[in-house]
Structure to design on (1008 residues):
């Protein structure tokens, strides 16, 4: 096995596609969006990437079969805009791997003459989010202005310093290759998978790509999650007084 | 020293052997089973594998001599089924090492034209196990069905996501090489070496391999362990009130 | 991408320059000094160094654009002394990277026929510093004596054992190449960015280089920081009794 | 800089020397013994080994100069037995480095036709040691018997499983090269530098090597340490009631 191993199933014929990256991360926001797009557009898997920089483990699927840790690239032709969608179940667990795997995907982006990259993720604020917000960062000044038109917010203090992993490196290493790239970060608590934040990111992305997508599946997941959060809140409120009693009993 | 160093003592003449992996892990279940089979079938050591991905240490044997961290492969011819048994005192401590060492053993498996791989381990549930259960995962759909016949359980929620280390990677990397492989995980608390869980795994494995083995040594170890657990339970019960008194005395 | 990648913008024509290193570290003392000098002398950036040993992330600038983790080298000609100034937003996060990146900068130092290296940093003492002090270490005995003339203190017990990272390795690896190098460490609490300590280090460095610099910007930052510390002290004093009440209320 | 870099000052002319390793470790026992022998026999430094597997730092000496992390090899001719003594201020901080650096020293051992290796260290038991004891391990059965004659103890349960680092790997990797090697571990608390334990190890080693050494310096250090321990015990006894009072005052 090589350090990075690519299993290419098919060369897609795409016209200056946009690459969308949604790998696991904060609130799983990026991955939720990428998977939704893959599903709704019926995108086709064109390659898998394996690497010893991924965790040394297999995922067990619901049917009892296993899948080795990997990243996957999907392709999709559409009237508005051809797409390459990068998703997967893991990011690198080593420093070096993050750089090398990102470079590999930038090589592929260049082979496909990608016109722009959107990286998607969550920005954890440590508390429940009241108003859905999508923060942005870009590797060219003019992209910042363009993104503001689609409702992306750019704030001096946020996303507080740095963007870690593939979502950040595709911008940083893309800059060195002069590939325009934007990062869209959905504000999220950071504690839970957050389909509501994913919905906000997806809305902005569709606007930017002039893409119409059925959002129902994402809305359903967001509503389910809302119910989970309500239950968690109730449990928390119910638990606080009980805990206090125990402590009192314990000290006396 | 190379990154991975193989000391081969002998080429075994085997007929489409099955490879069984039992390296250290949760409850030491896999290793207990592998060692029992090696001992009962009087299997012969055919190679040792050393690597700088193992911990930088030696084990001290009871006679005062030392053994460098290693993995070992044993061979055994039998009427029912020839076997290659992989055991050892360590697994890789690096991410990369896990992949490279597994690939090395898959190379050897292919040289010996292995027909199937069984990887063995424990699945820790964080509490004492009431009913011995063997959970499974496989790298081909048809193996799932076959294994159910031998009493292996496949559950949607368990083994909760992922199988880490050699037991998982032999399936995942074996899948890429089209080598059929099954993982058998004995349910165990995860806190103690668990020969009882090992006995359950061994029973299933013998059924699958149509192998008859004297199980007495394993039963004896399981009974000994039962006594240890009884003592631990008693100690725990005895200790709780005493601890409370101390705390009270401490606070007053 | 190579393990270490250098983007050289320009070969500077310098006369036996002195190299000054100020990378992020304790109290950010070194970086504050390096940035002040770069700004005041209007030094020109001559190269950037990227490496997979830096954290896999981008910094988000205030205007919404991003910068990949990097080190930077600036050049500046002046009447008294030509300078090469090394700064950046990161140090290596791997053991190996620390050595390799330092070696790379020593190669560059030798190409420019650097006459001496000054490395700058903070020495954290775990409490607020009463009297600003600059501690020193050097890779040649005669440098110790020379530095004492500029007010650098050398103490048997301090800087307690070892100097970690680029500030230390430039001295240690420089010693093997016979490049004279001095480390100046401003005493600092270690809890906060410390422009006051940076001011003390800068004062000593200017004396050693016979350099006159406008210190106003640094003084302003130090004064701002003083105010922050005053506020923190007040908050702490205000909080202590409040916290005690809570605890009492909580226990009763 | 190479991964491992050797600066050889001199080829020593030695007759089947014994190699003694005493690098930093538990209670610093091994290093104390090695340094004592180097000093008493006036051994000559013949090489230094640098590596990026050592911590990326320099030590600051009492005179303000610095030393890069390194290992050192000393040679000494004597009537009884020529010696090669390995000491230094660091061990590898990476897994791989431990193996590679040990292999490098075994290469050197073979160049010098070393007849045997003694590795020295401490065995931490988590409490003050009542009776000085030296535990042993060896990479050949006959060495176990020989060592018992010099007062080395071999116990089934101790040194509890494994010997980590150079002291262990010189035995384990030495075994693969058929170089006889013994590890001597002085029992020690593990909390403090322990010259008394070092004295015990040195006594056994001198007996085994038929070497007479002035032990006064070691005895003096051991006595100093005894005083430190007495003071620590007194402080502890004095502190316990004081702490209790504080707690009472705090709770009421």
């Amino acid at each position: 096995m090589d350090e990075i191993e690519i299993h290419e199933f098919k060369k897609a014929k795409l016209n200056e596609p946009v690459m969308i990256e949604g790998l696991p991360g904060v609130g799983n926001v990026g991955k939720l969006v990428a998977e939704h797009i893959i599903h709704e557009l019926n995108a086709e898997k064109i390659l898998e990437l394996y690497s010893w920089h991924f965790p040394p483990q297999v995922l067990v699927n619901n049917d009892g079969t296993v899948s080795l840790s990997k990243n996957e690239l999907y392709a999709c032709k559409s009237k508005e805009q051809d797409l390459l969608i990068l998703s997967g179940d893991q990011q690198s667990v080593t420093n070096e791997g993050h750089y090398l795997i990102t470079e590999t995907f930038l090589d592929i982006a260049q082979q496909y003459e990608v016109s722009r990259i959107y990286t998607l993720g969550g920005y954890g604020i440590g508390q429940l989010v009241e108003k859905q917000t999508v923060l942005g960062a870009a590797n060219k000044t003019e992209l910042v202005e363009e993104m503001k038109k689609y409702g992306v917010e750019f704030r001096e203090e946020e996303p507080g310093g740095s963007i870690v992993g593939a979502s950040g490196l595709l911008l940083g290493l893309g800059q060195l290759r002069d590939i325009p790239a934007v990062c869209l970060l959905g504000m999220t608590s950071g504690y839970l998978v957050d389909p509501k934040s994913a919905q906000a990111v997806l809305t902005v992305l569709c606007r930017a790509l002039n893409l119409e997508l059925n959002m129902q599946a994402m809305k359903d997941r967001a509503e389910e999650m809302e119910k989970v959060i309500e239950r968690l809140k109730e449990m928390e409120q119910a638990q606080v007084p009980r805990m206090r009693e125990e402590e009192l009993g314990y000290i006396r």
